[in-house]
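Work Package 4 report. The design task specified in the project plan requires that, given a folded chain encoded as structure tokens, an amino acid be chosen for each position. We show below one input record used in the internal validation round.
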């Protein structure tokens, strides 16, 4: 058992380094370092038998916190999975591509997944227009919207179908600012983002009054999925606590309804 704790400690720290090297523009890798440190401390306590001097009540409190944390993780991951395979119906009036980091040579890997999914949908639905939403981050030379527009045009999407929104800094602002470019009470709108991020994007749209919103899930990088799923789970908790989201819509359903550096922007 104690050697399992050591192994989990080492693996968590190594995974944190792996996430750090992705240069995704967030500091969420620190969470993995923290998890590794926690496992490491547990290993040391058991190895040197320090756990024998810890009061029983304190041990049970710790176990209770761990169990509660696991329950919360399971619930948030289940919510994420309800929208993991969303495709969106045909003939939407608009799709909104949520921004993510751009690099000097173009969209990041995570953003290319979103843009490629948008291209596929636009090819199948020639009347649909696309809003590309994302401002200019401190580590970006151009706005995400401008880079996305260029990428879509390079893939053959006509410029007249592309509407840039270049002021947003996080998912809430993506949805809020894009709503000014359409009629959120009447238009049928697809939220295009990576599979692990669709649930939160739709939940924010519902809170902001989008009457007919659907998820359009793009793929994501498998090696970073653990990181992105955990990060999204914490993002759901944060947005629920701050009143940004409503969490009562189901898988693939139509939504009917009237900036943390660790959690915003949706993916590694």
């Amino acid at each position: 058992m104690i050697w399992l704790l050591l192994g989990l400690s080492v693996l968590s720290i190594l995974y944190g380094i792996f996430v750090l090297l992705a240069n995704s523009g967030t500091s969420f890798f620190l969470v993995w370092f923290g998890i590794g440190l926690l496992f490491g401390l547990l290993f040391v306590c058991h190895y040197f038998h320090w756990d024998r001097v810890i009061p029983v009540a304190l041990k049970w409190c710790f176990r209770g916190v761990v169990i509660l944390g696991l329950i919360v993780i399971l619930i948030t991951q289940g919510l994420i999975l309800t929208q993991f395979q969303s495709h969106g119906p045909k003939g939407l009036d608009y799709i909104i591509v949520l921004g993510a980091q751009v690099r000097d040579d173009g969209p990041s890997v995570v953003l290319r997944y979103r843009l490629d999914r948008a291209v596929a949908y636009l090819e199948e639905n020639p009347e649909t227009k696309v809003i590309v939403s994302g401002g200019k981050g401190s580590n970006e030379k151009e706005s995400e919207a401008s880079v996305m527009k260029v990428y879509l045009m390079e893939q053959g999407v006509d410029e007249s179908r592309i509407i840039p929104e270049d002021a947003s800094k996080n998912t809430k602002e993506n949805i809020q600012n894009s709503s000014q470019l359409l009629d959120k009470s009447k238009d049928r709108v697809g939220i295009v983002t990576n599979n692990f991020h669709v649930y939160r994007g739709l939940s924010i749209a519902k809170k902001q009054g989008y009457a007919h919103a659907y998820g359009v899930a793009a793929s994501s990088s498998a090696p970073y999925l653990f990181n992105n799923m955990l990060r999204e789970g914490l993002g759901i908790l944060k947005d629920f606590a701050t009143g940004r989201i409503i969490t009562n819509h189901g898988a693939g359903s139509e939504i009917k309804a009237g900036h943390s550096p660790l959690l915003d922007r949706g993916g590694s």
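Strands lie at 94-98, 102-103, 106-107, 129-133, 162-165, 189-194, 213-218. Validation will be extended to a larger panel in the next phase.
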